[in-house]
Amino acid sequence: MPARIIRTPEHIDRLADEMRTTDLPIIVSWSPGEARSLPQNALLHMWFGEIAKHHGDRDANQVKGECHHKYALDIRLRDPQFAWVWKHSGAGLTYEQQCALLASETLGVSSKMSKPELREYMDAMRRDYATEGVRLTDPDAAKYEREFE
Fold it and tell me: C-alpha dihedral over 72, 53, 59, 84, to 10 degrees?
C-alpha cells in the first residue's frame, strides 16, 4: 500500500491528483507526525551492536529484544491496537520469549514508531547505558566525523 509523508500543500495536491486516477474503492488513513528516518534506524541498530560488544555475553539481536522490552514496549503500548495484540500474543510469554518476539519485528515494535517515539526510546537507552559506562555512538559527533573523512 502506498504511503506518503505530507509536508507541504503541494504534497497534498500531488496526492489528490494520484488519488483521482486510482481505481475506486480505496482505503485512506493518516496519522500525525513523521515516520522514523533511515539514519535514526541505522543508529539504533548500531547501538544494539555496541551494547552487545560492550557486554560480550549476548548478540545484537538479543540486545534488541531486551531494549525493545525495557524501553520501547511502554511506548508502543500507548497504541490501543498494539496493546491488544500484545495482550493476546506476547504478554503471557516468559521474559526471554517476549524479548525474542519483540526482536523478531513480527509486531513491528520500533518500525512502527514515529520519529518522536523513536527519539524517546533512544534517549532512554542512551541515559541508562551511559550510567553503565557503555559508550554509544553520538549522532552529533558522528556528523562532524563524516565532515573530516
Answer: 0
